[in-house]
Amino acid sequence: MQITDKVSLSVQDGIGYVTIDNPPVNALGQAVRQGIVGGIQAAERDPEVRIVVIRAEGRTFPAGADITEFGKTPLEPFLPDVCQTIEDCFKPVIAAVHGTALGGGFEIALSAHYRIADARAKLGLPEINLGLLPGASGTQRMPRITGAAPALDLMLTGAPISAAKAMEIGVIDEIAEGELDDAATAYARDLLARGAPRRPTSERAEGFADMAAYDAEIASRRAKLEKTAKGQLSPFAIVDCVEAAAKLPFAEGMKKERAAFMECLASDQSKGMIHAFFAERQTAKIPEAAEATPRPLDKLAVIGGGTMGAGIAVAIMDAGLPVVMIERDQESLDRGRANVEKVYARNVAKGRITQANMDNIMGRYSGSTDYGVLADVDLVIEAVFEEMGVKKAVFAQLDTAMKPGAVIATNTSYLDIDEIAASISRPEDVIGLHFFSPANIMKLLEIVVPAKVTAEVVVTAFELARRLRKIPVRAGVCDGFIGNRILAVYRTAADHMMEDGASPYEIDAAIREFGYPMGPYQVSDLAGGDIGWATRKRKAATRDPNARYVEIADRICENGWFGQKTERGYYIYADGSRDGQEDPAVLKIIEDERARKGITPRSFTTEEIQNRYFSAMVNEGCNVLAEGIALRPLDIDVTLLYGYGFPRWRGGPMKWADMQGLDVILNRIREYAKEDALFWRPSPVLVKLVDEGRNFDDLNKGK
Ligand code: 3HC
Ligand code: NAI
Q: Is residue 156 scored above 90 in pLDDT?
C-alpha cells in the first residue's frame, strides 16, 4: 500500500514493512515524514500486522533530515513527532539499517524498539558539521542507552561509527548475517516467537547507571570545548542537552533539545556550515562535464619526490592506485622514496596501520630516473622546482616519453601554465593540478584550466580528484590561481597594518579569534619565510612602483630567520619547539622600519584588524570572479575553507560577506581607500552587486 509517494507499507506473514524510497539518500523530507507516520498508523490498524520493520530502498537508510528544507517554513509532521509516533506504536517496531544512517535517520532508528544493521552500515550524528545538534531526540534517546561518553563522541566529532562499534555500545541489537532484508525478517519472526515486548528507548535508563561518571564526562567535555570550540554554539548546546537527558524527564529534555536546535538553525554559524556542505558538492559541477567523459586513470606518475611529489604519491597510493616516481638522479630518488616511506612509517609507529599494510601499500610504489618507464602511464603530475626553465625541460622529456592521450599536469604554485603548455607539442593535454601541502592530507585540489586544454582532460582531472577523495575547485590561469592570488592581497593588508601599528602577535591573535587555527605570521613561520622572500625578489622588477611595499619581512629574512625550521621567524622557537614566543628583536625591526618611513604607529582593535583583513580577501575574491578565474563565489569559499583554514562555521569569505551585508563591506573599503586608494580599489563586481541590491548567493544561483 502506497502511503505517500515516498513511503509504502507491505504486509507478509504478520510483518508490516514500512519502506522509505526517496533517492539518492532517503533524506527525511516532508513526504517521507508524513509517509512514516501514515505507515505506522496503517500498520497499527491492520490486524494482520503483529510487528513492524522500518527499512529503506536504495543505497542507504535515511541519511538525515532534508537539509534543503532548512531555512524554509517547517512543514508538519516534524521529525521529533515522527520519532515519537514510531516509539508509541503499540506493536513492536524494528529498524533495519543499511548504508549511512545519519542524523535524523539514526534518530528514527533510535526511536524504534529494536535495531538490526547490515554489517557494512555506518551510523552517526553529524549535525555538528552543519552547526546543529541532533534535533529529533538523538541527544535524549542515545544517552539513555549508552551513557554520556559514546553519545558525546558521536555528536561532538560528527564521525560515523561501524555497525560493530554500534553493537558494542548498545545502539544496535543485531548485525545481519547475509542479506539485511532476510535477516530483518528472521529477527522479526524470532522476536514474535519469543513474545518480545515493545522496548521504548525513552523509558530505558541503563545509560544513567553510573551518574558520577556521567557528570564527570559532561564537565570534562565542557572544559575541552572551552579550548577547542570557543565561540561556537552547537558543541556547547550538545553537551547541555546530553546533560539534560539525565537531569530532566524525557518530555522536558525534548523541549530543551528542540529549543537549542531551533536556536542553532537560526544562527549564522549553521547557515555558514550548511552553505559549506552544498558548496563543497557544487564545485565538482563544471561546464566541461556536459561535453566529455574522463580518460582512463589506471597508472599514474609524479615527477619529483620532494615535499609535494612525495605527498602526491602518498595520496595516489592511499587511493589504491599504483604510482611511478621520477627523480633527476639516484640519490634524489632514494630521498623521494624515503619521503614516502616516512609518512607510512609514522602511521605504523602511531598504530594507524600495520607493517604488513605498509608493505602492501609500498608495493604500489615504483621509482626510476628514466623517463622511459612512463610509456604506459595515463596521467603524470610534475612537482619539480618552481622555475620555468626546469619545468620546461621536464615537460620536453614528458612530451617525448608519454603515450598519445596521456594527461600531463603541473603542480606549479604560480608559474604561467599556458606558457608551460605552449612549450610542448600537445598543449591540449596540459592542465594544472595544484595540491596543497601536505598533499596526502589537505582536501583541496585546484584544477587549473589553461586556454588550450580539452574538456576531456578537464573532466579527467575532476575524476582524479574524486578518486583521491579531494575537493576539486576549477580555477583559471593567473598569478596564484584562486587561493594564492587572494592570499597575497590579504597578507599585504596584514603587512600594512603591521607597519601602521599592529604587532604581528596582535594580528595573529585577531585572526585566531575569528576562528582560524593560526594567524598569518604563524603560518609564514611554519611554511618558511624564505619561499615568500624568493618570490618577492623575483617579482621586484615588475612591482608597481606606486604600490606600498612593506619591507619588514625582508629585514627578518636577511637575518636568516625563516621561521620554525631556523627556530626563529616572527616568533622564537626555543629548542625546536612548535610554540613560538613573541620576539622583542622582531618588534625592534618593526619599530625601526616605521621610524625609517616616518610612520607614527597607531593602535588597532581586534575588530578593525579582522575587518581590514577580510575586506581585502573579499574584494580580491570579487576581482577573481570578474576575471573568470573562479566560476562562482562558492568556489572561492571552498578554496579558502579547504586550503587556507577559513573557519567552516563562517561558510567561507564570500558567504561571510553576504551575511555581513555587501554594502557594509563596500563602505569599509571606501573608507580605507581614503588612506591608500591604490590598494583599496573597490572591485567593480562588488560595486555592481551593491548597486543592484544583489549578493554572492544570487551569483551562486545564477541569478
Ligand atoms: N538532505 C538533502 N540532500 C542531501 C542530504 C540531506 N541530508 N544528504 C545528501 N544530500 C544530497 C547531496 O547534496 C547530493 O546532492 P547532489 O547530487 O544534487 O549534489 C546527493 O544527496 C548525494 O550526496 P553525496 O554526493 O554527498 O553522496 P555520497 O554518497 O558521497 O555521501 C552521505 C552520502 C554520506 C549521506 C552524505 O551525503 C552526507 O554526509 N549527507 C549529509 C548527512 C547529514 O548531515 N545528515 C544530518 C542532517 S541534519 C539532521 O538530520 C537534523 C536532525 O537531527 C533533526
Ligand atoms: P622540493 O624542492 O621539496 O622538491 C622538488 C623535487 O624535484 C626535488 O626532490 C628535486 O630533486 C626534484 N627535481 C628537480 N628537478 C628535477 C628534474 N629535472 N627531474 C626530476 N626531478 C626533479 O619542492 P616542493 O615544495 O615539493 O615543490 C614542488 C612544486 O610544487 C613547485 O612547483 C612548487 O611551487 C609546488 N607547490 C609547492 C607547495 C609547497 O607547499 N611546498 C604547495 C603547492 C605547490
A: yes
